[in-house]
Amino acid sequence: xxxxxxxxxxxxxxxxxxxxxxxxxxxxxxxxxxxxxxxxxxxxxxxxxxxxxxxxxxxxxxxxxxxxxxxxxxxxxxxxxxxxxxxxxxxxxxxxxxxxxxxxxxxxxxxxxxxxxxxxxxxxxxxxxxxxxxxxxxxxxxxxxxxxxxxxxxxxxxxxxxxxxxxxxxxxxxxxxxxxxxxxxxxxxxxxxxxxxxxxxxxxxxxxxxxxxxxxxxxxxxxxxxxxxxxxxxxxxxxxxxxxxxxxxxxxxxxxxxx
Length: 259
Known about the structure:
By secondary structure, the chain is α/β, with parallel strands linked by helices. 43% of the residues lie in helices and 18% in strands.
């Protein structure tokens, strides 16, 4: 990240800006920095003024306790101000949940697109989320960052053999470095259910997309988000998974965000 701005509470937020056109801020999900959004930013830069950023607690951005979702909304407010006072938002996974919170808060957001926010559609999903929260909080409180990362990877459905393989990989130290931010994403996700009341208060157009090759529950969640938003649209990207191809996603976003 080549630039920094200050959020309302004084936390430095690192960002990069590229392209020309209507302003768009890209919001990354859990266990990722703004750098993971660079390929998508590059694919959108011919039509948009695109910002990618390190969410607080990761990468080159700071972190200020105590954490609250409102503080991350204020981070987005600071970025939108730099972009001229209005922007569209795109968020992937739990970053999509943050983008929806920001739109519901009344920030000057003109459109919101999200991809596979991992909400549970049925009440049974809250039990798994509560167990994860308890174990995550315990691991982080005792400084067991590796255990926290493992808990998250299991929550995503990654096989045990792959998790142990990841522990031996060069990327593991980077994952442990941002492990405390898992608590941030967990807070953004709330009880894990589709936040229908919050979505009902989003007054701008919302695109909720999912991959055709992703698990069915992610498509159900994406459809539920679109149905709960007053101006929601649901879209399936055939052949895509949670690791969506930026070259497939970019034209869909450009069509929606460019309106």
